[in-house]
Design goal:
Number of strands: 15
Strand order of the largest sheet: 1-7-6-4-5
Shape: globular
Distance between the termini: 15 Å
Number of helices: 10
Helix content: 25-40%
Mean pLDDT: 97
Oligomer: single chain
Largest sheet: 5 strands, mixed
Structural class: alpha+beta
Strand content: 25-35%
Bound molecules: acetyl coenzyme *A
Radius of gyration: 19 Å
């Protein structure tokens, strides 16, 4: 059996902050941000939380799939910015939805998280262990940003996306994923300090730090290679793919990938102009938009591909 995506949903915070809004509070400009990244605006949480956005996106995905919360066997939430260390985000979503029959856990693979969750769902479904799985990518990255560092804070936003996958004869054709922990500090965010009666270890930086140029080089090298690999495994040529739904970090990265794959940029839908980089939430939000805009036709081959902190990367080939 294969994991087939049968419903999608998403949720963005109400507050929309444009590049010009940022230009009023820090030394940056619409021209700098737009020309280097393609980002024009992002949505930032005020009253919303990672949990509230994840629950809303999940409700919409269940409704879109025509599935009741009680039918879910498993919930996997990909996030690096859950509201709490425990309970996990996935358990909070389970409670919010009333998905009383589901097991729930979180997975962290940064911007690759949603693809890792889909590949995990495929493995469970293939094994026969579960039939109906909710996968979520949800982030409140704004709380992990150093708002005095213009090189990083302008790039990210907040939001959540979700998809319901169910055992079917059609669906995921192939999935790959990889990691290179030796390059992890290219994009990092520290945790809490070790402080107890017997130790007081100075905290590592607790905000996102990034070597943008190294991430850029990693992305344009790794993403086309990982897409080629998953296409080979699925027995597909790039020409046969209807859409490539990639992690939304930077428009220039997407253009470079399209060029390497010799595919028109129109086959790479984008939402980064309106949302910025949403880490694990980028791909499911883009997928939901493509689904609701009527871009995806039943039986079309599509590719999902993520890349990011870890370093991690992953791709899935599937038929819609
Ligand atoms: N506004 C205005 N100027 C800025 C800003 C800003 N927001 N940020 C940095 N600058 C300045 C710098 O201070 C620097 O000035 P200087 O030359 O006087 O020292 C100049 O702009 C160039 O800075 P760079 O960091 O070299 O800018 P670069 O051209 O590399 O662009 C960017 C930065 C957009 C991050 C680029 O490296 C990139 O696209 N990297 C890809 C990584 C990425 O997209 N990461 C997202 C998260 S990772 C992920 O999701 C996988």
């Amino acid at each position: 059996m294969r994991a087939r995506i049968i419903g999608t949903g998403s949720s963005l915070p109400n507050l929309r902050v444009t590049n010009d809004d940022l230009g009023k509070i820090m030394d940056t400009s619409d021209e700098w941000i737009k020309s280097r990244t393609g980002i024009r605006a992002r949505h930032l949480a005020t009253d919303e939380t990672t949990t509230s956005m994840a629950v809303e996106a999940s409700r919409r995905a269940l409704e879109n799939a025509g599935v009741q919360p009680q039918e879910l066997d498993l919930i996997i939430a990909a996030t690096l910015s859950a509201d709490r260390i425990v309970p996990p985000l996935s358990c909070e979503v389970q409670s919010g939805l009333g998905a009383v029959n589901a097991a729930a856990y979180d997975l962290c693979a940064a911007c690759s998280g949603f693809v890792f969750a889909l590949n995990t769902a495929q493995a469970y479904i293939q094994s026969g262990m579960y039939q109906t799985i909710l996968i979520i990518g949800a982030e409140t990255l704004s709380k992990l940003l150093d708002w005095s560092d213009r090189a990083t804070c302008v790039l990210f936003g907040d939001g959540a996306g979700a998809a319901v996958v169910r055992a079917d004869t059609e669906g995921v054709l192939a999935g790959i994923q990889g990691s290179d922990g030796s390059k992890g500090m290219v994009l990092s965010c520290g945790g809490r300090p070790l402080r107890h009666p017997f130790a007081d270890r100075t905290a590592e930086h607790s905000y996102v730090q990034m070597n943008g140029q190294e991430v850029y080089k990693f992305a344009v090298r790794t993403v086309p290679a990982c897409i080629s690999q998953v296409l080979d495994q699925a027995g597909l040529k790039p020409e046969a793919v209807a859409y490539f739904l990639l992690h939304q970090a930077n428009e220039r990265i997407l253009q470079a990938v399209a060029k390497r794959l010799k595919q028109p940029i129109e086959k790479f839908p984008m939402c980064l102009s309106e949302c910025g980089n949403l880490s694990a939430a980028s791909i499911p939000i883009l997928l939901d938009k493509a689904n609701r805009d009527g871009l995806l036709r039943k039986g079309d081959p599509i590719i999902l591909a993520g890349f990011g902190a870890g370093l991690t990367w992953g791709a899935a080939a599937l038929t819609w």
